[in-house]
Amino acid sequence: MGRKASNVERRGAVAGRERGCERGLGRRFRRAFTIIEVLVIVLIVGILATIVATRLIGRVGQARGTAAAANANALGTAVESFWADCGQPSTGAELASFLMERPSNVDAAKWQGPYLKNQDQLLDPWGRAFMMVMPGVRNADFDIVSYGADGKPGGEGENTDIVKP
């Protein structure tokens, strides 16, 4: 019935399986990427990351400018509230001195502060204190000013001065 396979025939069968890879039978066993495929993928991801990063960097500066304008408006409102309650702040007074603590020349019954929730509201997005200019350059009574990213008067883009209210 059945004949027993000899060692030569067995070796031939094993060799045939190895040759089967050459005929396409072994492709189902290939699971790894070649180094070229990996390099191409890394290159594509790097190019995409560069494109996205350059677009986002411009947006960060724009967002800081928008945040500075909103914070300056909020400070302007706080100064107006102080002004309505206590009268005009003394010239040269720092924002923190009269918005967070009652000045000594203001009657305790008039002062309704603190006019801000915390000291952080006194800082622009670049970490510098907002300034109050009296009388204002753009507004009649006062201006709240941030000199932008560079901290110097004038400039464009991120360095644009923010003057509110």
Q: Percent range for helical residues?
A: 40-55%
Please trace the helix and strand order, writing H or E for each element. Answer: HHHEEE
Q: Which structural category do the helix and sheet elements fall into?
A: mainly alpha
Radius of gyration, taken over Cα atoms and rounded to an integer in Å: 36 Å
Rounded average pLDDT: 78
What would the principal axes of the Cα set say about the shape?
A: elongated
Largest sheet: 3 strands, antiparallel
How many discrete domains? Answer: 1
Alpha carbon gap, first and last residue: 104 Å
The tally of strands reads 3
- The fraction of residues in strands falls at 5-15%
The CATH C-level class name: Alpha Beta
Low-confidence stretches: none
Strand arrangement, major sheet: 1-2-3
Provide a brief overview of the structure.
With 165 residues, the protein is mainly alpha-helical. 43% of the residues lie in helices and 6% in strands. The chain has a single domain, classed as Glycoprotein, Type 4 Pilin, CATH 3.30.700.10.
Structure description:
- With 165 residues, the chain is mostly helical.
- The chain has a single domain (34-164), classed as Glycoprotein, Type 4 Pilin (2-Layer Sandwich), CATH 3.30.700.10.
- It contains 3 helices and 3 strands.
- It has helices spanning 7-20, 35-86, 95-99; strands spanning 131-133, 143-146, 162-164.
What keywords describe this structure?
single chain; mainly alpha; Glycoprotein, Type 4 Pilin; three-stranded antiparallel beta sheet
Question: Any chance you could write out the topology, listing elements then pairs?
Answer:
Elements: H1 7-20, H2 35-86, H3 95-99, E1 131-133, E2 143-146, E3 162-164
Antiparallel strand pairs: 1-2, 2-3
